[in-house]
Amino acid sequence: MINLRNDYCGVCHPKILEALCSKSKNTYVGYGLDNESIEAENKIKMLINNPNASVYFTVGGTSTNKIVIAHALKSYGAVIACDSGHINVHETGAIEATGHKVITVPNVNGKLIAKDVEELIKGHPDFHMVKPGIVYISNATEYGTVYTKSELISLSNVCKKYKLYFYIDGARLGCALTSKVCDYTIEEMASLCDAFYIGGTKNGLILGEALVVTNETLNEDIRYAIKCHGGMYAKGFVNGIMFNELFSNNLFFEIAKNENKLAEKLYNELSKLGVKFLFKQETNQIFPIFDNSLISELEKEISFEVWSSNEDSTTIRFVTSFLTTDEDVNKVIHLIKNIKQN
């Protein structure tokens, strides 16, 4: 069975496992205050060219989003996202459970657009409504699309105009930054937002994310919020070791770049076979559309998620991971070619 269901389907990248094993007999201070975590933090600060930023290693994406958004908002505050945003669709009401409303606008290819944010803000004019306090996006998006620099600048400008925080969910940030359509660096992106996280769970680690806070006001007392919302664990040094290795020898970008490369090959070759897609390929997620009659045959050899379906066709999602090989991709292409011909 070829696993294209997600990009966290394996334990971890071999180099990450090697780093953990080589330090398995060491002892550390807990709660992310160890030397490994500090060294990893400094590497990230250097990467974004911001020595004043703060970095916190958290457990997973949902808890990180919950921590940042709940910490940023007052009791009457709300977060703005597009309707396909992860916090609105795939986090089981985690944000609402903190007492904060997620208010949405329709997505455009999975993206939140600045003009729509401004219109929504204008629609919340007084104290009879929740007050928008933070804007949330994910990059790459739920559809594998990537924000352009101009789109990020526009969102950043709207947030500054209305005094909102701008927060970026980077669960698949590596794939976004190494995408063929990306026209900015992580340093440039970091300068446009108040906080973002660098996904490790979906980029070769066992678990964990690196929350980067660039706004000093938002950073105040955030360790309390991390602890309060269950995002701080005693063996924080485990994340420190993993992120330290991830940002050594360009591993973070190499993993993501290879995932994108394999997804692009799969997209191009399936396109040649006449397969249609929901979106153009930009990162490691692609969404091919097949006749319903073919799905059961695909399921015999490939693990994937069904994205949507109707009477005639089904859209599925293929996701390449750090474990995906060129041989895997060739097998999938060959399999689909045979199924379509029979």
Q: Summary?
A:
Helices cover 41% and strands 18% of the residues. By secondary structure, it is of the alpha/beta class.
What features would you describe in this structure?
- It contains 14 helices and 14 strands.
- It has two domains: 97 residues, Aspartate Aminotransferase, domain 1 (Alpha-Beta Complex); 233 residues, Type I PLP-dependent aspartate aminotransferase-like (Major domain) (Aspartate Aminotransferase, domain 2, 3-Layer(aba) Sandwich).
- With 342 residues, the chain is an alpha/beta fold.
Q: Which percent band covers the strand fraction?
A: 15-25%
Question: What distance lies between the first and last C-alpha atoms, to the nearest angstrom?
Answer: 21 Å
How many beta-strand segments?
A: 14
Specify the CATH homologous superfamily of the largest domain. Type I PLP-dependent aspartate aminotransferase-like (Major domain)
| CATH hierarchy, class of the largest domain | Alpha Beta
Alpha plus pi helix count: 14
Q: Provide the domain count.
A: 2
Question: Structural class per helix/strand content?
Answer: alpha/beta
Topology:
Elements: E1 2-3, H1 14-22, H2 35-48, E2 54-58, H3 61-72, E3 77-82, H4 86-89, E4 101-105, H5 114-122, E5 131-138, H6 149-161, E6 165-169, H7 173-177, H8 186-192, E7 195-199, E8 209-213, H9 216-219, H10 222-228, H11 236-246, H12 251-272, E9 276-277, E10 285-286, E11 288-291, H13 292-299, E12 302-303, E13 305-309, E14 313-319, H14 326-341
Helix pairs in contact: 1-11, 2-11, 3-10, 5-6, 12-14
